[in-house]
């Protein structure tokens, strides 16, 4: 039973591992170990956090004349304060859909059924208590790290806080994510050098945790990052609770974590074609696969093995499972069926029931800056963005100056005859037409601002 007492799932089972199913006491030990890990990392005061549960969750989309197509099929699970939950699976398995469903971000065209409870109640996520970090880093590239975070602090934090308090909150958040050395460096983008991809991801996280949310959603937080940057980003996220004392519930959809990143998570939700193949402690996942005939090969990352086993998108070599050679679809079906009847699934259902029954308070909406303050801050940020954008501001100013000089030279001293009246009319028509069409040049900047608004609304 010593395998379950290990906090990390980095020891792969050899191919000739035993196929004896884990005992009930072993699974109880696993859940006890995960609880002890939470306490050891300063997570004992869980009543202060947000408990999230979902059960029999179905998500379907219209499939034309063929009815509706399911994306998620009766999934269940939970997320507790002070713990990190990893949602994994092959591409198209429903990871981002599950994350969006839990965060209340699904489109109105998508139908959702089932129960999603926050602290045991069916309620909407309150402003300031939850945050969602998108896969793409949507940040104004002309701003520095400090400016991006500080402007967001002025917009998101309430007017009851003074400017100095907002500045202190922004500085503290920057230090939380280890960005103090890059505070005066511009974000950068296409055609302009700036901070690295890992730093951009941490800036996005900084902006979202300014309100001190107790529930944090992350969509592919390590996408596009190398192994070292991925680990640094996730380790910073996992250590947030120790730095500000807030018992955060963190849920992340992640595609291909390294072994070190995988060890940072407490629980794993493994999906395949919208179905749950495994939900439970990370430390028990490897034994679950091994005991059911799908052992992880030696020297292979367990997370890679799990995803490979349930990925039916490509033609693979048959797995040597319970009955010899099996196709991937057969392997998925066997694992899902065995999980449904496993003791660890019963423990998950018991955990969900206990979370629903516990006494919890409803979430209270926070406040942000008023409309006047937001308009003032956004105008100031827009002017700074245009001032630093050479192609948008200075080049257009040069064109306007050259055009004004040319028109002034052409229509200089035209007299006061009847022909001059017609010439002045032509000049006015040209100027009005030019100003009308030149405003199209501001459309790219508008689109950029709209992306930022949608990402951080």
UniProtKB/TrEMBL annotation:
Topology within the bilayer: Multi-pass membrane protein
Compartmental location: Membrane
Alphabetic keyword roster: ATP-binding, Membrane, Nucleotide-binding, Transmembrane, Transmembrane helix, Transport
One Pfam match: ABC2_membrane_7
Record bears the keyword Transport: yes
CDD domains noted in UniProt: ABCG_EPDR
TM region positions: 393-415, 427-447
Record has Hydrolase as a keyword: no
Domain (ABC transporter): residue spans on this chain: 52-298
MF-aspect GO terms: ABC-type transporter activity; ATP binding; ATP hydrolysis activity
InterPro entries attached to this UniProt entry: AAA+_ATPase, ABC2_TM, ABC_transporter-like_ATP-bd, ABC_transporter-like_CS, ABCG_dom, P-loop_NTPase, Plant_ABCG
Example of a GO cellular component annotation carried by this entry: membrane
Cited PANTHER family: ABC TRANSPORTER G FAMILY MEMBER 11, ABC TRANSPORTER G FAMILY MEMBER 11-LIKE
Similarity comment: family membership: Belongs to the ABC transporter superfamily. ABCG family. Eye pigment precursor importer (TC 3.A.1.204) subfamily.
Name of this protein: Putative taurine-transporting ATPase
Upper taxonomic lineage: Eukaryota, Viridiplantae, Streptophyta, Embryophyta, Tracheophyta
């Amino acid at each position: 039973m010593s395998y379950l007492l290990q906090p990390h799932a980095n020891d792969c089972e050899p191919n000739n591992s035993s196929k004896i199913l884990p005992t009930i006491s072993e699974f109880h030990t696993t859940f006890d170990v995960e609880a002890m890990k939470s306490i050891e990392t300063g997570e004992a005061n869980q009543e202060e956090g947000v408990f999230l549960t979902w059960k029999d969750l179905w998500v379907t989309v219209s499939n034309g004349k063929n009815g509706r197509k399911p994306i998620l099929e009766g999934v269940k699970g939970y997320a507790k304060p002070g713990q990190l939950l990893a949602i994994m699976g092959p591409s198209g398995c429903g990871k981002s859909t599950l994350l969006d469903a839990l965060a209340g971000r699904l489109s109105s065209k998508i139908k959702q059924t089932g129960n999603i409870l926050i602290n045991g109640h069916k309620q909407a996520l309150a402003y300031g208590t939850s945050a969602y970090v998108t896969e793409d880093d949507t940040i104004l590239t002309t701003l520095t790290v400090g400016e991006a975070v500080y402007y967001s602090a002025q917009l998101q934090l309430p007017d009851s806080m003074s400017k100095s308090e907002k500045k202190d909150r922004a500085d503290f958040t920057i230090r939380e994510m280890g960005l103090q050395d890059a505070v005066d460096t511009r974000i950068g983008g296409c055609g302009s050098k700036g901070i690295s991809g890992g730093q951009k991801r941490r800036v996005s996280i900084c902006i979202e945790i300014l309100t001190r949310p107790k529930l944090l959603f992350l969509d592919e937080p390590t996408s596009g990052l190398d192994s070292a940057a991925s680990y640094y980003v996730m380790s910073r996220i996992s250590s947030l609770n120790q730095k500000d004392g807030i018992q955060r519930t963190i849920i992340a959809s992640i595609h291909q974590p390294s072994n070190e990143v995988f060890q940072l998570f407490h629980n794993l939700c493994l999906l395949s074609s919208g179905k749950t193949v495994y939900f439970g402690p990370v430390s028990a996942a490897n034994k679950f696969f091994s005991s059911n005939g799908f052992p992880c090969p030696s020297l292979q990352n367990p997370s890679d093995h799990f995803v490979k086993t349930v990925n039916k998108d490509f033609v693979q070599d048959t797995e040597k499972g319970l009955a010899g050679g099996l196709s991937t679809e057969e392997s998925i079906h066997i694992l899902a069926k065995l999980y449904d009847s496993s003791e660890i699934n019963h423990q998950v259902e018991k955990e969900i029931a206990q979370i629903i029954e516990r006494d919890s308070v409803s979430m209270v909406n926070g406040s942000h800056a008023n409309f006047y303050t937001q308009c003032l801050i956004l105008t100031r940020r827009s002017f700074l963005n245009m001032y630093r954008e050479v192609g948008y501001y200075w080049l257009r100013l040069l064109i306007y100056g050259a055009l004004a000089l040319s028109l002034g030279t052409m229509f200089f001293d035209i007299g006061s005859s009847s022909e001059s009246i017609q010439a002045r009319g032509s000049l006015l028509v040209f100027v009005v037409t030019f100003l009308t069409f030149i405003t199209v040049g501001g459309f790219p900047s508008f689109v950029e601002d709209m992306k930022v608004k949608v990402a951080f609304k």
